[in-house]
Amino acid sequence: MSYLLRHPGEVGLRLLQHLELVAIAIGIAFALALPLGTLAARNARVRGPLLGFLGALYTLPSLAVFGYLVPYFGLGLVTTEIALVAYAQMILVRNVTLGISGVPAAMREAALGLGMTPWQTYWRVEIPQALPVIVGGVRLATVATVSIATLAGKIDAGGLGALLFAGLDNDDSNRIIAGSVAAAALAIGADLALRGVERLAIGRSR
Amino acid sequence: MSGGGAPVRIANLVVTYPGSDRRAVDDVSLDAAAGELVVLLGPSGCGKSTLLRTINRLVVPDSGTVTIDGEDVAGSSAETLRRGIGYVIQAVGLFPHMSVGRNIGIVPELLGWERAQVDARIDELLALVQLDPARYRTRLPRELSGGEQQRVGVARAIAARPRVLLMDEPFGAVDAVVRAALQDETLRIHRALGTTIFFVTHDVDEALRMADRIVIMSAGTIVQADTPLRLLANPATPYVDRLLDAHDAVRRLQLMPVREAMAPPGAGPMPTQGAIDGARTLREALSAFLEGADTLAVTDADRPIGTLAFDDVRRAIASTEASTRA
Q1: CA distances from B96 to A113, B31, B42, B121, B176 (A)
Q2: Domains of chain A, first to last
Q3: Chain B residues with CB inside 8 Å of A128's CB?
Q4: pTM of the full predicted structure?
């Protein structure tokens, strides 16, 4: 704790870096997962193989994935984001798929029957209906990513991991504690904030 | 207001679902006059819903045509077509994340009406289906009872003043008493607007009650299409006979005295086509209607005590249904 109190500037900077790593990863991952999950929800032949592949990806040890990627993409931000996006896909795609396929067929039919285009039906009926499940996926993926993103500290991409690994290398338990506490706080904070969003989404879609 | 209904002509329609070698609709032709209320009746799987859904192109036929007011439904974009046709399904069709008002305003909004125009129309429709606009406009569908939700469903379907309205088992999810009220309301709206209505049901009593004409379907074909009265009198096949008999409507008429279904004297113009004793059964009255009477005088020891029209018989069928099932 004492390190945190004596170096609030440094811890704060690492925290912001960490948040940035996570935000970029979740942003890109969501942009990919929405079309992929929608495709999987519409097409059973895509669903099995896609979710199977992402599930297999998810089981790879994260440290090893960072290790595999460094020779191709070097140290730093690019490697970190590729790894984080890959891990987030599993949860996000699965939840988008569940959310969209959970919308009753009759609801979709009613939308089309009233004269909505397929695009309007998707954005105005299916997505709002699926939103609680999708936001739930974003929440789980975000918390997992906050944790995995500490590995970025090992490959010069900054974030709270940099504090942790500096502490480990120098046998400085104060820095380890400061990094851990900040990472935990970030994960809990993100979880609470997204739970709030989830509740709003549930309130609007029931 | 673009008034009234449009004539609908279905010609030689064939529908086969992918992966099935049986025809869901097998060479069906059917004309509905402008403003007619046509009930499609039959057990599930007989093709009645499929036939209904070819009218707004939710189902595309293998061959045959559907024309509304002389225009082929395949001639315009599916969205344009559907915005001009009302569509009601069971309560699940309301969008739970939108307020009652927004649900009702969907089609006018899709058609690009001005905001103020849409809002005025929402209030007008809520009043039409007897829900207080101030109380209901901003509520969510889940805060409404099943019957109220279904009224909203009807209001939504007629929001943009369609000349054709499709109703697919619209009252299947509500109890018998509420269903009778919704049937009344639909008939009232039908009389007021003159919309051509196609109404799908598997409920014989509902069909007898609502229809100008009942189209009985089985295995993708039309078995018989006629007015409720003539169907009861002359079932064309044993199938129709069983279908009607299984639902007991006629047998129940045998149990009900005329005086319980009659209108008080003076409620309508005095009849000229005969008289019936108030203690006779409605089944006997039905025979008189079949012989050509429109309205009968109801008598008690030759003294007139009321009048009976075929509509009164229909109402009686519906009310016994409501009380036996409630």
Answers
A1: 17, 36, 31, 21, 24
A2: 2-205 (1.10.3720.10)
A3: 95, 97
A4: 0.79
